[in-house]
Amino acid sequence: MPHIQFEINRSLSDNEKIPFAEEVRQLFSEIMDTGTEHICISIREFGTHNLSIGRATDPASGVAVVNADIRQGRTMKQRRMLSLGFMNLMEKYWRIQRNQMYVTLTEHKGEDFHLVEKFLADWQEGEDPLAD
CA-CA distances (angstroms) from residue 62 to 6, 12, 90, 98? Predict the structure, then answer.
């Protein structure tokens, strides 16, 4: 169950969050070759100077950090496409400059992800993680 955590240094409306989260799910599903029902997204909002990146030249225009916990097994190409895809979506929806973003991916064994009915297996190409 990937947990994708977005942190931004300003407030967002629900109208800015809902379509963003849906597009993140679709992006993750397509690039990481998996379903969408197990994807968890958190959006955390901070005050302008409560989130910073050293390279950000204009924090007031927006800073964003992404931490994504994913199952191991994806290629570097998939991980890079996903990271750049997150950046594209934050620029599109939240108008944040890409040089004021940072993405971290942390890989875990499938058995580290638990739903009420089961834990997930390690990722496999073309899978349905919720299938028996």
Answer: 13, 11, 10, 10
Q: List, for residues 6-65, the tens digit of each pLDDT value.
A: 999 999 999 999 999 999 999 999 999 998 988 999 999 999 999 999 999 999 999 999
54-57, long-range: CB < 8 A, 24+ apart: 55/99, 55/100, 56/99, 56/100, 57/99, 57/100
Q: Is residue 94 part of a domain?
A: yes
The alpha carbon of residue 97 and the mean position of all alpha carbons in its chain are separated, in whole angstroms, by 17
> What is the domain count for the chain?
1
The CATH number given to whatever domain includes residue 85 is 3.30.429.10
- Both tokens of 115, joined, read 């739903």
The dihedral sign for the CA sequence 72, 73, 76, 82: negative
Is residue 103, in this structure, part of any structural domain at all? yes
This prediction's pTM: 0.89
Question: What backbone torsions phi and psi does residue 105 show, to the nearest 5 degrees?
Answer: -110, 130
86 belongs to a structural domain: yes
